[in-house]
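Form 7-S
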Amino acid sequence: MNEFYIIALAHILALISPGPDTIITIKNALVSRKNGIFTSFGIGIGNLFHIIASMLGLGLLISQSVLLYSIIKYICGVYLIYLGYKAFKSTTKFEMGKEINNLKNTKTKNSIFEGMLNSILNPKVTLFYFALFSQVVSVQTTDQTKMFYALYLFVATVLYFTIVSIFLNFKPVRNVLQKVFGYIEKITGAVLVLLGFKVILEK
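Output:
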């Protein structure tokens, strides 16, 4: 169960740090709450694509080349440390209203597809899941347990962005988020740095 707790914690920290998925969810939620919820499902499907690809790719790398696996593991570890350092040292304020206005005039023809494409084309998501699974999930973990992890991550992603689509398009909620964003960035940054070092140092 320790695996699950680590995965769940790292995942929720990654979710609550506002990024492209948050912005596109809010933008579509401003069109209608239904569009926001559909976007959440799309983002969940996109994440599921990365999750399955990371799990299958990890197994293939281990079976084919330990050296190649080690190289990619180090690259992922360094990248996580880099992302964590940037987040921890960041002094940039997240102006959610400005970001939304930049996208507000975009028409939403297919919210599920838009959310899915937005997630699939984000390379940070790929590296996040690959680094997470390469480090946290052991070789002894059963396929059934891995399927449970994948299902949990999908449901948690959809549920989180559904909540975002319902509540974060209200100005008072956005104002609160903007005030605590700096703290969220520092916590997320510290966790990413620790995870990155764990990925690199673990044999």
